[in-house]
Amino acid sequence: MWIAITRDVSASLAGCQLSFVPRVPIDLELARQQHAEYVRALESRGCRVLALPAQDDLPDAVFVEDVALVFDEVAVMTRPGAESRRGEGASVAPLLASLRPMRAIEAPGTLDGGDVMRVGRQVYVGRSARSNDEGIEQLRTLLAPFGYRVHAVVTHGCLHLKSAVTVVADDTLLVQPAWVDVAQFAGYRLIEVDSAEEHAANALRIGDGVIHPLCFPRTRERLAQAGIDVTTVDVSELQKAEGATTCCSLVLRDLAHPHGD
Ligand code: CIR
């Protein structure tokens, strides 16, 4: 029913971009093991995983979420805000082109997939250091024919919109109120992260459950109390590269096998 595109961890991960977390040593071997566990978690939640080989010259290439957006009707290659990441899309585009009609964000627009959150036909886009007004405007124009409405959202103190808010069930959002004004999500059921778990708002929804980092037990408890089925993964080494669970995959509906048949 779901396809997840992933990419193996680059040998140069330690040279990743960092914006809001300090640079600390990353255990590359452990990062690879954790990524393999993450792939197993995707499979356990019903994804058919298409794994791309590592791109060792591109430190952040494991974070495939940022290079493309995939909707049922269309895929959009982004133009990542960090110049060092602009080469990552080239190997993802041909794979997506076999699955969806393709569009692309063009210069001077910039957009990172981590800034884009879809809730039904509403698409919220973080106006961040990585995604600019021109990129957001291009996305609005590209998606309008498919009936999606694009809303720009200001974030502060975090890398991407999905550092601050993610969808965890129909009309239910997991939020970090310190990083985004939650008033703009007033129509949704909101679950706040525990105040001791600053980075806990990044959960990856697949069907009726989520994949969430192991190190946030208090927020996990809140999700469980809200009736959400949580699969945990230890992604400590990827978190040191300012990634978490949404960023390591592009999850799309398998339109050739929509019911898993
Ligand atoms: C970066 O700064 O671009 C990477 N080190 C982390 C990207 C994480 N992406 C995401 O959460 N969507």
Structural key phrases:
261 residues, alpha/beta, 3-stranded mixed β-sheet, globular, binds citrulline
Q: Could you estimate the helical fraction of the residues in percent?
A: 10-25%
Gyration radius (Cα, Å) is: 17 Å
| Beta-strand percentage range | 25-35%
What's the total count of β strands? 15
The small-molecule ligands in this entry are: citrulline
**Biggest beta-sheet profile:** 3 strands, mixed
- What sequence of helices (H) and strands (E) makes up the elements? EHEEEHEEEHEHEEEEEHEHE
Q: Any low-confidence stretches, pLDDT <50, length ≥5?
A: none
What would you call the shape?
A: globular
Describe it.
It is globular, with a radius of gyration of 17 Å. Strand 3 (68-70) and strand 4 (75-77) form a beta hairpin. By secondary structure, the chain is of the alpha/beta class. It has helices at residues 28-44, 93-97, 133-143, 161-164, 217-225, 236-239; strands spanning 2-7, 47-52, 68-70, 75-77, 102-104, 116-119, 122-127, 149-154, 165-169, 172-175, 189-192, 204-206, 209-213, 229-233, 250-253. The relative contact order is 0.19. Helices cover 19% and strands 26% of the residues.
